[in-house]
Amino acid sequence: MNCRSALPLALFTLLTGCEPSSPDEKLDQSLPDLGLEQILPKAEANAYCTADMDSELLFGIGRLLIDEDQETHGVLRTQFASEAVQMARSCLAMAAPRYTRSLCSLAMVTAERPNVYVKSEAFNYIAYAARRNEGCAQWALYDIYSIGKLKQPPDKALAMAWLERSARHGALEAQEEMLSQSKKQNKLALAYAWARVLGDAENIEPLKQAMSPAQIAEGEQHYQQLLTQLPPQELRKKADRKELIALHMADVYMNHPQAFEGLSPLQRRQFMANVVDALEPNPDFQKRRQLYAYVLIARQANLTAPAVNLWQDPALHALLVNENLGLEDTVAQGLAILAKRNPDNAAAAGHSEAK
Asked: Do residues 125 and 103 lie in contact, with contact meaning Cβ atoms separated by under 8 Å?
């Protein structure tokens, strides 16, 4: 129920039963309750983004366009909205209805340009995402209220409430900040609880030495309570993996779109999920050239099954990490290696190149 009325607030809540029943609901009611149709900027199709594209790809393209603007204009970028920024805002606005995390990036690129865009727009993006438990937005509200940004007055208590909520919902940086802030405020039991959550041995033992038995017991009680509130780590990992897939997929789409020819959006997403799972755990994976080469070799050889992992093949791994080779040579030599082992790969690669 949306509790709005001209009646005095106390009377209204008694009549309607809309009094917030949890700290999270009280925090939500401190924010504007606006729909996406009220807050999103007008989104226009551009060279990279159209409204019918899948949301992860739109988000990834928006993020990469922001990076491109930063690399091109540096510190001067905040004085104007380049073409890349204008396209990024449209891409992120298109993604937002299905991918709420997009609003954090949209808020950032908007807030950085106060001479171009209205600060309240950026705050509304953050507020919408925070009410829907997007960790990046809750963390942003901690930053906003800590010092007063986007025309919001400083409010230390409100800042800490959003930090705590972000931490409870699994944001790692918020959990680390809760530990840091609790130590600064000499709330040793609470600091101990968050150190336990983080498995931070460097803090757990010094805290225990500084605490009384009663404080340690209180910290353990806090910790057990937090365990009932925190989401499974797998949910955070899943969200982080989703973002990586989006960014890598957008990178390939923008720079080597031919790699996705013939794939449906679902097939493209699954293929890039396999690529992320193959590359990200490996410390040798550091270069964009490696990403492009891996994708182009796999696609031209028609290797899209989840079981395929070129990175684990010794010969292909050595080729992919060879910094003396350019992209074209890496792909050509990779296809040659596969062709020697299986003539079907050579036929598939030749067919792809002919297209």
From this structure: yes
